Amino acid sequence: MRRAVPKSLGAVLLLLAVLGGVLAVAVALVVSTWSGGAEISGHGYAAMAIGVLFTVALGGGLMALVFYSHRHGYDDSVASEDGFDDRR
Question: Where do the domains of the chain lie?
């Protein structure tokens, strides 16, 4: 599989400008939402921290299982049985 490589410096700069604009809009929305005056107690912050940590741990664990499965060949038998083995 070939990687898509930008053909010129202009394409890279355009990509960076678009991504920077998306980031700026996201940051502006976060700042405007969080400065709206809603009060969060200490319990709320603790619950949010636990939720974030649990979500990150779950995502990391699932990604570790994907890499483990691929590295040890558990996916090879499934790919060859369904007829969609594209590694030719």
Answer: 7-37, 39-88
